[in-house]
Amino acid sequence: AVITVAVSETPLDIANAIAGASGPDIGGVGMFVGTVRDSSSVETNAGKPVVALDYDSHPSLAEQRLREIALEATTKWDVRKIVAIHRTGHCELGEPTVVVACGAPHRGDALEACRWVIDTIKSTVPIWKREAYADGSSWVGDNA
Fold it and tell me: Radius of gyration of the chain from Cα atoms?
């Protein structure tokens, strides 16, 4: 399997992630793109509207864990290519913060692997999120 993982301080290139999970032996690409959402209509961690997110990560373990997750996915499903990239730094509303693309001969494997990869990233990779509000900020999550 071809695995591409990264923790990036620069904006994510979604088209490049799709290309990285595509190829002549790939019948389908399952994708997930997480973005900073306008939370003015939902209850946030501090009960205030989020205006941006800031992400920080463990310098070496985050990327290592992304690679381990991708490798494990290739043992569970027939996925030939996996791209998993997470942003760090400051992210504005609407900006992509994580992209997962899984290329497989068949859509079932591509979609199931993609869902498992993003769920596992969210629960096990040492990346921390700080919600920014108009009047301050707070760290969010179990690892904060």
Answer: 16
Q: Is the pLDDT at 70 greater than 60, yes or no?
A: yes
Q: What percent of the chain has pLDDT over 70?
A: 92
Pair 81, 20: CB distance under 8 Å: yes
Instruction: Provide the residue type at 108 as one letter.
Output: G
Query: At 38, phi and psi to the nearest 5?
Result: -70, 115
Single pTM value for the model? 0.90
Q: Which residue has the tokens 């700080």?
A: 130
